Amino acid sequence: xxxxxxxxxxxxxxxxxxxxxxxxxxxxxxxxxxxxxxxxxxxxxxxxxxxxxxxxxxxxxxxxxxxxx
Amino acid sequence: xxxxxxxxxxxxxxxxxxxxxxxxxxxxxxxxxxxxxxxxxxxxxxxxxxxxxxxxxxxxxxxxxxxxxxxxxxxxxxxxxxxxxxxxxxxxxxxxxxxxxxxxxxxxxxxxxxxxxxxxxxxxxxxxxxxxxxxxxxxxxxxxxxxxxxxxxxxxxxxxxxxxxxxxxxxxxxxxxxxxxxxxxxxxxxxxxxxxxxxxxxxxxxxxxxxxxxxxxxxxxxxxxxxxxxxxxxxxxxxxxxxxxxxxxxxxxxxxxxxxxxxxxxxxxxxxxxxxxxxxxxxxxxxxxxxxxxxxxxxxxxxxxxxxxxxxxxxxxxxxxxxxxxxxxxxxxxxxxxxxxxxxxxxxxxxxxxxxxxxxxxxxxxxxxxxxxxxxxxxxxxxxxxxxxxxxxxxxxxxxxxxxxxxxxxxxxxxxxxxxxxxxxxxxxxxxxxxxxxxxxxxxxxxxxxxxxxxxxxxxxxxxxxxxxxxxxxxxxxxxxxxxxxxxxxxxxxxxxxxxxxxxxxxxxxxxxxxxxxxxxxxxxxxxxxxxxxxxxxxxxxxxxxxxxxxxxxxxxxxxxxxxxxxxxxxxxxxxxxxxxxxxxxxxxxxxxxxxxxxxxxxxxxxxxxxxxxxxxxxxxxxxxxxxxxxxxxxxxxxxxxxxxxxxxxxxx
Lengths: 69, 653
Hints:
The complex is a heterodimer. Helices cover 77% and strands 0% of the residues of chain A. By secondary structure, chain A is mostly helical. Chain B is 61% helix and 15% strand. Chain B contains 18 helices and 14 strands. In chain B, the strands form 3 sheets. A 6-stranded antiparallel beta sheet of chain B has the order 2-1-4-5-6-7. A 6-stranded mixed beta sheet of chain B has the order 8-11-12-3-13-14, sandwiched between helices. At the A-B interface, helix 1, helix 2, helix 3 and helix 4 of A face helix 3, helix 6, helix 15, helix 16 and helix 17 of B.
């Protein structure tokens, strides 16, 4: 039984990222993988306010858009 | 993984002075034995106080901090208490100190207002600033999910609410489950993307307004966005009101539940008062009827005389009737001089004619008139006497009398019951209880009204979004380069929003499957019933026991409820990104020895650190040692020093 509880070493972020990444690959392959990962990470840390998170996510998106031209 | 390493108490509840307990850094179970009233719940509350600054009593009611300090110390004039919790997480050492002391200038506190609660959080030896400490504590163990780490039998019982989608407690637990499993991270990302998508839509509308070709579409989009902003604000406001009302409803239901017995008595009392009023009205009506009947009651007393008079008067009336008829016939014969009888048409003999004439002359007109007048008087008297006889109805009077008597008996009985109920309700604030009931009915009506408003607003929002999407599609076809950048930005956030929205649904579904699978695995290890095959999860994370023949087990005992709840807690620990110690207060009270043994054996698999607060009869030390073996990391005992003084003592095996 111990293995059930202790064998699950994936952290919160990785578990969520796996779900999101699978979906991205299947249905939104044009979305930037790093951007999606960054947005998820911003929400996982939970140490900043909603406004700060939105600002950081927006900046990350702008960067991707600039790179794409 | 958060792991507790030591707990120090100062004047907390029965723990007088400074006392501490050390917890092994190794994975396993620590058992703390204490008989009733020695302070097991206080220990659980001390951990709760350290993390969240509050102490809970029965029904999860927040207790007054003024009553938490050690009573013996308070009697000596020393007020307040302190808890120090040492723990580690991911290799970092934390020391959390929370104290409750009398406010400056207060020598003898009398209520919570007279205290100041302060806390400090040390991280690897450095004291964190207030804001940093607060966010770190929220990250380490959010209060919303504390029930999965610090609980007792009462909290386990609440998990039954998950089986009903209507249950408020079930809704709260369901939210907490999603929180511990990380769903809010995805819903948070989805909300952020929606916000950025709406901002991008607004920018796109502005860009479109600046171009002659697209101005009209831009204007329409801007108008739709402005309307959406208002609708969203309305929706948020209504959601807030709805949440408050749901919370109010839960509080009112809790208050009614606690006073359920009195509420039933009060309802009975009100029903009795209504019944008494009805009986009194009916009795009054019958009394009026009886009073009316009594005005002719004398007729009853003269019943025999009336009957006698009626008989003699009827004889006389019949005599007069015959005499009057005879006189009229004679008069007719006298007036008709023909030789034939008008009745039988036979010839009247001369002797008979002579006899008729003699009789006619004997019965004078005056006599005839006197007889007619006498008969008329007699008929009136007969009619009056008949009326008197009909009014003299003793049976009807008896029925009314009986009804009045019955009403009087009923009234006395009901008033007796009412007095009894009033005595039982003497100490109850009846008006307050009535108000709670009325408030409860009102809040239910208000919730229904707000829910209707939410549905209407949601529909308007959906329509608004559909219209905006239509406009945007048309705009996409004609827009020039100045709108292209805004459109690309909007498209990006729209896709990101779509991605996280779908991810929420997929993650939830996946979680449910994993929780169901793991809870079943734990349950089959914990249950003693071989016919139970699995647990099935519902949308709220409620678990139903499934029999091996595939049928649901519809009703389960409190003991079975505990086993299912423990299986769920264990499954959540398996799947939650946030993991921590489990501290359980008296969990085996409703379980038989076989279940207890199985659960104790399974505890090390539920969490890496488990602290059990039990009394020895609930879990004999020998059973704990045999079942846990090397996983037993420590044994402590709450020893009585006095009725208000307990000592924490380490026990050796």
